[in-house]
Amino acid sequence: PGPVQSTTGTQLQQQAQQRIEARLAGNTALANGGTVTKAQAQSNGLGFIAKHFDQIDSAHKGSVSMNDVRQYLQQRRE
Fold it and tell me: What Cα–Cα distance (Å) separates residue 2 from each residue in 11, 15, 23, 73?
């Protein structure tokens, strides 16, 4: 195998975001503009959303969409 390239900074954040989005996009609860509550996130194996739910749900709607998650991830990168 070739040398392993280290990943840092922006590239690392982008890779993490891609992994999270790929995992979440496969979840039917968030597919096609759906939303999930914190309890649904916990029961559907969406640990990242459950853990950060209060920060993701900045409008305090009680549920979050994939767009809400994307906005949260974008804010974390800034």
Answer: 20, 20, 28, 32
The answer to whether the CB of 55 falls within 8 A of the CB of 68 is no
C-alpha closest to that of 23 among 66, 58, 78: 66
Q: What is the pLDDT of residues 15-74, one digit of tens each?
A: 776 777 676 666 666 767 788 999 988 888 888 889 999 999 999 999 999 889 888 888
Residue 36's beta-bridge partner residues? Answer: 64
Using CA atoms, how far apart are residues 46 and 24, in angstroms rounded to an integer?
7
**Rounded-to-integer distance, Cα 42 and Cα 48, Å:** 9
